[in-house]
Amino acid sequence: MEGMQAYGAGKAGGAFDPVTFFQQPQTILRIVSWLFSIVIFGCIANEGYINRPNEVEEYCIFNRNQNACNYGVFMGSMAFLCCLAFLALDVYFPQISSVKDRKKAVLADVGLSAFWSFMWFVGFCFLANQWQVTKHEDNPLREGGDAARAAITFSFFSIFTWAGQSFLAFQRYKLGADSALFSQEYTDPSQDAAGAPYTSFGGDDVESPGGGGGQPNSEGAFDGSSGYQRQDY
Predict the structure, then answer these.
(1) 166 contacts: CB under 8 Å, gap ≥ 6
(2) Which residues does residue 177 pair with via DSSP β-bridges, in sequence order?
(3) Which of 4, 23, 59, 69 could serve as 178's disulfide partner, Cβ 3.0–4.6 Å?
């Protein structure tokens, strides 16, 4: 009975096990994606803006295209928050008693993770293209080159970490709910013990108070053909 689960988690009300939680593949991928988003955001925000020796105003290191830096910073910060939200959902997920709510959460995980994988693919192509066409005279001292390449590299890695999260969520969705333990309106038995319907025992035969094994009602019915029998007192 303990192995029966609904969308990758057991019955609601179980104790939270940090060791098991951090060993789950989706948790590992979320933490890795979270770290990648920090690296991308930090590289562009700290070293993604440079200027020529004779200029004061700073421009984006990616071909002086402000949109490239803005895209990287926005994606890094939003992916950071999204990873935290998914981690919080993973912690709370086993406490969700409704199978319908669990299904919605898993479907949201599938869709959003696939969306983020696509957005990181777009970001990787965009940043790589702008870095490729960057002119040498725009950055003669080659400042921030390592940071720019790191942002591009971790954008590429993020494609696969988010795709992996989407794949694992889809696997959880395929598992579905075990009908032996869960219904579409499952509630914790401890919260609604008094509301359980009465179930009678299987047999219709009732044993007589006097013992003797009891007989079915059909055999104990009055048979008029036997007539009146005299009773001796």
Answers:
(1) 109, 110, 113, 114, 117
(2) 6
(3) 4
